[in-house]
Write a structure and sequence with these properties.
The chain is α/β, with parallel strands linked by helices. It has 20 helices and 19 strands. Strands 12, 13, 14, 15, 16, 17, 18 and 19 form an eight-stranded mixed β-sheet that branches. Strands 1, 2, 3, 4, 5, 7 and 8 form a seven-stranded mixed β-sheet that branches. It has a two-stranded antiparallel ribbon with strand order 6-11. Strand 3 and strand 4 form a beta hairpin. The two termini are 45 Å apart. The N terminus is likely disordered.
Length: 599
Amino acid sequence: MAKPWITENFATRHRLSAAMLVAGVALLIGLLSLTTVMRDLEGRSFDYLSTIDPVLPDQPGVTLIAIDEPSMAAIGQQWPWPRSQHAELIRQLRNAGTRAIAFDVVFAEPTDPEQDQALADAMGPDIILAADESLIERPYGSTLVRTEPLAKFVEAGARSGVASLSMDGDGVLRNMPRYPDGFMATVLETTGTKAAPNSKGLRRIQHFGPAGSYPTISYYQALDPAGSLPPDYLKDQIVVIGFALQANADVAAGGIDAFETAYTLRSRQLIPGIEVQATIFDNLRTGLSIGTPPGRFSLLLVALAAALALLLSRPKSPAKKALLLAAALLAIVGGCWLMLQYGRFWIGPVAPSAALVLGVVAIATRDFAGEQRRRREVQNAFGQYLAPEMVQKIADDPSLLNLGGESRELTILFSDIRGFTSISEAMQDDPQGLTRMINAILTPLSNIILQHGGTIDKYMGDCVMAFWNAPLDDPDHALHALEAAREMLAAMEQINRDIQTMLPAGANVPVIRMGIGINTGTCVVGNMGSDRRFDYSVLGDAVNLASRLEGQCKEQAVDILVGRNTVAAAPSLLFRKVADIQVKGRSATEPTYTFSDER
């Protein structure tokens, strides 16, 4: 069966617009992904997902020695402390059996020569000192400046590595340092520990917990390991020394060497720099850092998500669409988390999720506009033929239609007003009044036809042609046509009263009557006409017979004549035979019937 004319028309439009919508959404989200807002949202999504049940190393790779408030109080001096103090710490740590000692403190400026010499004397190949790199803005551009420890410390055997960390635009520390001689990379090299193979390139830090997740002792405790710590607590340990002052997320991080990390979103705490360095060390050592895709890969995902919106928009039920959309979003977020958790690869869910949601919204908006346009077309096409409730039914489901032309059994009705010639002559000087009178006659008759599910084909002067069982199926079409005819005949009494009030004064016009012919048979029904104009109409021998039956009413002195097929299709009604009539073009006569109570 051919597709409904209106349905096929709209389906074609939708297919043509679908590619444009998908491409437009993908392009828009692709451009938005370059903005700061989208990057910040992707960053926050990483913060949240990377801290859900994170993969942890078997054991912490370092122990932290914190320059904290208790140490400040115990030592009784403000920072900076005498460098001989650090020399003493180194001696105590070596005595405790540490493997390597890393200072996350930049000893760049000379102090008292004796103090500097005391620290230089403590230097050795097991000491790693922090260097710093910073971008200095100058009138003619930016300059990268590197600050190294005092040369005498390096000459005394210590090694140095860049401890600088680079934060994202929203101030959150997420990315691994990329310095070939980074601070923790140097610690790894010093201890003979190999970095994991996947530790190179642009990668993100896998944080393992909030502040306090690494074993930490205070600086003053490390000055007396035997008296403050369990036996062998520091044996074979790599220790990192640095600041761990009290801080929270509402404090500016720059002056206290503390950072906002992925866990800050949950804990509202900043992470001390030494704990960040310990995390970087374990990322390098275990290969738990997280890879990032190239930009074109992200754009591909955005395009696929936008295309997925087309599939999600197919169901007609809004509830089903919402359920599928929620499931798809959950799948995107869940897939990103699984890839991060088990593939150590980060795919941001915000851009594809936005493309999916925007795609569904765009298609829903298009469908809504198309639905309204389709309803207007249905109204324009059938508003003059069908009752409003039938037009609404077609608008709700155009698949009910087949307007391209089909053969089906119909019941056809022709009605004609007898005596209307006298009215026309009486009102020949008032054409507008005559038009109003025709409308006054045809309007109630048309309403009756529509109320009984009929389709009005056309008006021919004072004649009405209607049919049943198209465009919508009506299994009882014959019965409904007959019921409409009976009600139309009954309405003539009121119509005569109404038109008497519209006649000119003194007009002597007889009571008008109506003749109706009804027949049932197979017809061709569909849109008929030219390319510029067409009507929904019917053709067939059954139509011709219905017209001939209407024309025979006056000769047979009845108000309605019904064909035998219609009588057979309405067994619940009583009829009487009127006569066998000769129909032009047929050799055999045709029996005719009327209602048994008809005169």
